[in-house]
Specification:
about 80 residues, elongated
């Protein structure tokens, strides 16, 4: 090298590839997204639809902004009569 300094790329490593933490975060997000997709399909196959608030909560869950417990709590609160 000619005095160049490697700086971490946007994914956190000097070579631009994802490090273990980033890979785990990506895997977790994919797992949450698949779970929501499966649940959505199940609900729709039963002839029901998912409301806008539930879709917003699903997006928050997928992004990791809320955890599964909070996602379920919010759904139950909407379903309460």
């Amino acid at each position: 090298m000619n005095g160049d300094v490697l700086h971490p790329g946007p994914t956190g490593s000097a070579n631009g590839s994802a490090g273990p933490a980033e890979e785990r975060a990506g895997e977790d997000r994919l797992r949450r997204e698949r779970a929501v997709t499966f649940a959505r399909a199940s609900v729709e196959l039963e002839g029901f639809s998912i409301g806008a608030e539930a879709e917003q909560d699903a997006a928050l869950f997928i992004s990791g902004e809320i955890d599964l417990g909070e996602f379920i709590r919010r759904g139950k609160a909407r379903a309460a009569f």
